[in-house]
Design brief:
Layout: H1 3-21, E1 27-33, H2 39-49, E2 54-61, E3 65-72, H3 73-80, H4 83-91, H5 100-114, H6 121-124, H7 129-138, E4 145-146, E5 150-151, H8 155-177, H9 182-185
Antiparallel strand pairs: 1-3, 2-3, 4-5
Length: 188
């Protein structure tokens, strides 16, 4: 990877993952071209981001694109392994060792087998569990608000969260666009 391609990836990372990078969300997910993110860049990013408890992994890869998952292991574990989170995931066949890595491997397999995003992905993305349940029950219809996710319960709280996510994005993107590298912006 060149310095230019690393900078371009940093801009995408800031835009699509600011809430997770800044610690107010357990994870974010975005897609990049295969040429934009390779194992060398992944290893480098993980070595730096691990200082803040963050990790990047590829959940899925096609001939042209990679689905990049950025997460805080501690925050993600709380979401996945909550009583309600486990109940939903177990209904979709998640089992075995209760670790983020095991459950993320199972999520990767579900993405590959469904050819898209399985409904339970909302748990991994930190969406409110009532909204995940609402999405599943309503097959993605009948939501009361749509922003970073489809909202079925407590639109007021979701609007505040959406504003916070947007503020994170604006802050981090402004830093990166002004020439500050993402690690300095995150104080790593």
């Amino acid at each position: 990877m060149t310095a230019v391609s690393e900078k371009l990836f940093e801009k995408k990372l800031a835009y699509h993952s600011a809430p997770a990078l800044l610690g107010i969300k357990c994870s974010n997910l975005f897609s990049v071209g295969n040429q934009e993110f390779d194992s060398v860049l992944q290893e480098y990013m993980n070595s730096r981001l691990s200082k803040k408890g963050l990790k990047i992994r590829v959940l899925s890869e096609t001939r042209d694109r990679k689905l990049v998952f950025v997460y805080n292991k501690d925050l993600l574990s709380k979401k996945i392994f909550s009583e309600a989170g486990l109940e939903i995931l177990e209904n979709y066949g998640y089992s075995g060792e209760k670790t983020c890595e095991n459950y993320l491997c199972q999520l990767s397999q579900r993405i590959a087998s469904t050819g898209g995003f399985p409904h339970e992905i909302g748990i991994f993305l930190g969406y409110p569990l009532n909204d995940v349940r609402g999405f599943i029950a309503n097959k993605g219809q009948n939501f009361c608000l749509c922003g970073f996710w489809k909202v079925y319960d407590n639109a007021g709280a979701a609007e505040r969260t959406f504003r916070n996510y947007s503020n994170c994005r604006r802050y981090l993107c402004t830093k990166v666009e002004s020439g500050i590298d993402i690690f300095s912006a995150l104080k790593i």
